[in-house]
From TrEMBL:
PANTHER family: MONOOXYGENASE, PUTATIVE (AFU_ORTHOLOGUE AFUA_8G02570)-RELATED. This is Predicted flavoprotein CzcO associated with the cation diffusion facilitator CzcD. It comes from the Bacteria. InterPro entries: FAD-binding_MO, FAD/NAD-bd_sf, Flavin_mOase-like. Belongs to the FAD-binding monooxygenase family. One of its GO terms (molecular function) is N,N-dimethylaniline monooxygenase activity. Keywords: FAD, Flavoprotein, Monooxygenase, NADP, Oxidoreductase. The lineage of its organism: Bacteria, Pseudomonadati, Pseudomonadota, Alphaproteobacteria, Hyphomicrobiales. Its cofactor is FAD. Pfam families: FMO-like.
Amino acid sequence: METTTQDGQADDVRYFDVIIVGAGISGIGSAHYLKRDCPDLTYVLLETQETFGGTWHTHRYPGVRSDSDLYTFGFSFKPWVESPIATGERILTYLNAVIKEDGLERHIRYRHRVVSANWDSKRKRWDLIVRNEQLGKDHRFSTNFLWMCQGYYRHSEGYTPDWRGMESFNGQIVHPQTWPSDLDYTGKNIIVIGSGATAATLVPALAEKAAHVTMLQRSPTYFNPGTNADALADQLRELEIDENWIHAIIRKKLLKEQEARLLRAQNEPGVVAKEMISAVEANLGPSVDVATHFTPTYRPWQQRVAFIPEGDFFEPFRAGKASVVTDIIETFTPNGVQLKSGRTLEADIIVTATGFRLCVLGDIAFSKDGEPLNFADTVTYHGMMFTGVPNLVWVFGYFRSSWTLRVELIAEFACRLLKHMRNIGCAMATVELRKEDQSEPILPWIDDQNFNPNYLMRDMHLMPKRLNKPEWQHTQDYFAECVSLPQISFSDPAFHFS
């Protein structure tokens, strides 16, 4: 028979002051700040996968690496001491070091998938049903504060368009997100569909063993070739400067450079586009038609730009081990694909580097007092809280800048909020539109003229809404938010405490 505690909580329920969902780079970083700033609060990290790392555990395709420098993609509190662009394996090693240094192992529950989360207004609690995948049974967790760090895409499956004739293809179709560990591509002809950061990583890695790799794209993408080193960091190390100082200095330097680069792209898009295309042309040489295959139609940084360390992506094209085709797939055939132009491409393996399946808040069935909660009906406050949803913070990072920069900004805000609630004796914090906001038009989560990758555009209806005010949207502007988020005042009428 079930018994209850003094507050009416069933004693078989695992209660924590804070529950962090996800043990990837967002969850690990958030736990660090929670431990640092709110050491008296109990907490747990619930992770669906069998180990930590999130993206860096899920993505195991050949050559997987960051496309952001680790001085800014890494944490501000943990120095990065290697080359700026890092392999997935080295990033996992880095995250494991943070877990051990912070003693987070005992706070993480692996193979724990959150099935549902209901806010109970009377008890001021989130009640969670959590599936223990290892034991095949459900557990109940309860918390006053829910911290969502589960990422923005579905880890179990990537996005592959439903092309006509796919079932007729005699070879193997692979998505990078579910790369088979036993896939032998030695001497094979491979088509990689897509031209984003994943394709830019895969093409040179596959070309080492494959007979030939064809990158098939609908339209060209911007690439940013450069050196996988930082001269100032190397100089400071030669001078035996403390690594904490080096990390802080290089981080600030790179952020300043990025701010200037993004400002130029905004103010002089034509000039910046020409510079970027010229750099690609210099790396490719005369054998590739740059005007057709490497000249995008959109503005620089309207979509994320992949950094190409040491120009390695371009080398197989120069060597004839890879080629690029810009066209649209008409149908799959038994031996490859037929294109809209009438051209056919033959392949033994087709890799669909076609992006993610957007997953808003982890496929969890959210409710409020038993009534289903649809986040698409809410307006986002600074892209981290939702109107009418109590005691919940959502981590959604940056696309133009390193994701982790926003993890830390939100973590510091969340800890300030938790301390404020405790100081005023408050059990519930909600944001609502202020009186002057209520006449503002409700807009899609992101302005497609500002940023418009396909994986966001095709599922925009699932996302929360925004207003045409900085505080009621995710601006994707780190350089504004690093000032505005620390200055958020809890006396703002948008906040409701009870």
